[in-house]
Amino acid sequence: MWSSDLLRAVRAHAGGERTAVYDRGRAWSYRQLWETARGVAGELVAVGVVPGRPVLVNAKKSAGAVALVLGCGIAGVPAVLVSVDLGADAVELLVERTGSTHVLGVDVEPEPGAAVGLRARATGVPVAEAMPGDPPLVLTTSGSTGAPKVVPLSRVGVERFTDWAATTFGIGAGTVVLNYAPLNFDLTLLDIWATLVAGGSVVLVDPDRATDGRHLAELVAAHQVEVVQAVPLCLRLLAAQEQRFESVRQVITTGDVLPSAVLATFPTVFPNAAVHNLYGCTETNDSFLHTVTDFDTTAPLPVGRPIDGVRALVLDPDGTEILGAGRGELLVSTPFQADGYLDPDLTAARFVTGVAGHDGVFYRTGDIVRRDADGLLHLDGRDDFHVKVRGVRTNLQEVEHVLDQHPDVAEVAVVAIPDLEAGLRLHAAVRVDSDINSLALRAHCAKSLPRTAIPSSFEIQQSALPRTSTGKVDRNAISRSHQEARKAHV
């Protein structure tokens, strides 16, 4: 049994009737959550889990699923959290890579405190060595080849992070925190697990209603939510309700660029809240924080400054450290970071030592940042978001930012498509809230972008853009779909 702060804290809180989780109209006390988690642990032992050997948790977010993860901890098995929408082939690949003995889910959502309707399938993977480091949680993140990378989170790293998050955002006994992200996202380390460690109350957003702005607003208002951490999509949906959420005192945007039009509404929508931009990677957890003071800016929010204990390096293409103002790849070392991937070759490529004369292990983020004269970091995009169109270096995220400034654009992704004449050309997938056409969008781009950076094709839709299992816009799917459509018309 991994005796982490999380388990000790939830068990300690279980002596009272304070609410731990609100889920679909039901309140779960800490006592009920702990009782259900203990029941899960007993069931896991009965189906043959092996202490130290991981299990794959493939469950839609719910109070029962939270109890399932806690039950894995009580039973002493690392929980590999994956998207409930992950395809069958990807699930089997992860089973093989992680050595998971079982695939677990929740068949029947229990009443508070009752037994989980557990779904458990033995994988037949031979019992071998325990997962190194006895990680309490194991996350996955997308890789450049499409195969997920496995990230075991260290026990010490998780405990340090939950302490930092609770202290920084004032999460304590009874604090009500909204959880928007799926259970397999690293964002839950703050809005679920840090909250439970601190004795707060987590309001779970039903995944099936995550794009229902009215429902989100009702949750925030009904439960008097105090802390909201979410991707920009959630914040945009809340802002569109034109309500004042006076109970909210901390708003944390993370995971993507927040549209400036949404940011401008915050003083009215969240009149009593401090607003922060939080940056980090699954591998390192949160690393930089920027507290917003200018709500009228049209520029993307800065990444910010390193949080306590974080070291940040900016390297030029030759690997030389840039001191002072400059632009280059960001490397970070945090108190919360994983020890590496499960794959040692991937670890060696990204978790590096001996960087520019610094001691310790640094993670190569692949993000290109700009440090200004005041030491503030700004994200210019990922190295793989820079392409050459007709010989001109073009930042795809800059093009996205310009399109995102159009008042009728709700969501956008720009991809580079192979082209025999130009080498690469740009294609934009755009979700809109009106009947705007591609001609108007091209004219909008022409005001701010060089000719080579204006997309040559647009796919305009009113439905959401496709997303990966980790909730990010699936640019590979957009590219494939567009290329297949072009072939069909040839």
From TrEMBL:
This is Acyl-CoA synthetase (AMP-forming)/AMP-acid ligase II. InterPro entries: AMP-bd_C, AMP-bd_C_sf, AMP-binding_CS, AMP-dep_synth/lig_dom, ANL_N_sf. It holds the Pfam family AMP-binding_C. Residues 472-490 have a biased composition (Basic and acidic residues). Coiled coil: none annotated. Residues 398-472 form the AMP-binding enzyme C-terminal domain. Keywords: Phosphopantetheine, Phosphoprotein. PANTHER family: BETA-ALANINE-ACTIVATING ENZYME (PTHR44845:SF6), CARRIER DOMAIN-CONTAINING PROTEIN (PTHR44845). The keyword Phosphoprotein applies. SUPFAM superfamilies: Acetyl-CoA synthetase-like. The keyword Cytoplasm does not apply. It comes from the Bacteria. Residues 465-490 are annotated as: Disordered. The lineage of its organism: Bacteria, Bacillati, Actinomycetota, Actinomycetes, Pseudonocardiales. Residues 12-342 form the AMP-dependent synthetase/ligase domain.
